[in-house]
Amino acid sequence: MPTTLQPTTLPQLPEIIDGLPNICGWEKEIQSVTQQNEPVFLPTTNIKLSEVQAAFAIALHMHQPTIPAGHNGQLISNLQYMFEHPQSGDNHNAAPFANCYSRMADFIPELVANGCNPRVMLDYSGNLLWGLRQMGHGDILENLKRITIDPTYQPYVEWLGTMWSHAVVPSTPIPDLKLHIQAWQHHFAAIFGWSALSRVKGFSPPEMHLPNHPDTLFEFVKALKECGYRWLLVQEHSVETLTGQSLGYKHLPHRLIARNSHGEVVSITALIKTQGSDTKLVAQMQPYYEAKTLSRQMLGEVSVPPIVSQIGDGENGGVMMNEFPGAFFRASYEIAQNNGGKSGVVAMTGTEYLELIEAAGCHEDNYPTCQPIGQHLIWQKVSPENSTPDAVTNAIAELQQTHHNFHMDGASWTNHISWVKGYENVLTPMNQLSAFFHKKVDSLPENITKESRYREALLYNFLLQTSCFRYWGQGVWTDYAREIFRRGETILANW
């Protein structure tokens, strides 16, 4: 175990270094802070579990990609591009989007001042955090500090970690998974401080995309645990029971099992994001109204309130921009009528809920188990006790021939969209750049991560993996990807 360093003894991290976001260089300090296992919400929560019928947790996902579209091809936030080109497409939404990135820092204090007990989880990509600072919108970050750092409001807000540049996990090169996770932790700590980072224990995968290839999933879960995460949010339709059925009860925490082709096993707690991808579910506070229909359940030998977990874009679409504030306030005031929002059906954050049920006697070993969709077919063909990479590879190849729906692309909330098919012109350069990066740096001393040339090469490697270049179809977005690859390759070639 690394020596535990207290956040107060660590140096304040710079947010920007040589014009680049702080995404590396303090790996040992980051690990020391994130591996602390003290309760986060338990010391401050005002909720008594015994008085709760059911709970709900909502998360707001915020992201803007970085694109080479500024003056002379400068890297800028897509939000900045929207402000500068208001006549194109939906770019007129730039100002409302910016407001959405900031407004929870106004909503939470107002609701608390009026006797409510609100909760929200926040998921901001590294691209977005950097882009706001780049474009002179540091005021948004300063506003968010109020609900992140101030002890008056911090108990109502939970930040979720994510991949720094919104890379979808199943198609991200395995050696880059942990680098993305650590990069977000660096950047968050530089903005909000070490103590705030020590409280980030839940993880939100971009696009809710969960890998189902045994080796990718194993490395992902292993990286999450090595980076101090206790749980992650998982899309209900991306997982199955160990025997291949749909989940029996989705409103309890599960234990996600990750077994690789060598038969090694790791696991992590998963909160199940229910239903589909429709942002209306969050905008109209559907999780609250669903929780009102639920009652306590037995988890092992402990009676616990179930939890409805849901995430939606925090800014995208008229329903989120316009309907969410009113619905959030209405639900908060209605909940407050029950003992100030502390009994009956209540809002919680994910870590708060897990800490409360664990304090009541639950243990991860009691949670029902799950695995990524389709894996039961592999383990029917390959005995987990005698698993080898060749056996798993052969089983996958055979299943792809005999089961027309079987694939190893992972599953997400956008199962009608493939992040792989038709994007060879992005994926091939993406994998080439990653391989070139690791060939260049992996044999170098650890302190190379503090050097600007490493940071710049890592940044371009990350940027090329941003999901947006495989979301908007062929055209300007794949052209952006080609330019990012060209620059990244040049940086590494001239190292």
From TrEMBL:
This protein's record includes keyword Hydrolase: yes
Biological processes, Gene Ontology terms: carbohydrate metabolic process
Record's signal peptide: none
GO molecular function, a single term: hydrolase activity
Keyword Hydrolase: yes
Keywords: Hydrolase
CDD domains associated with the record: GH57N_like_1
Protein name as catalogued: Glycosyl hydrolase family 57
Native source organism of the sequence: Aerosakkonema funiforme FACHB-1375
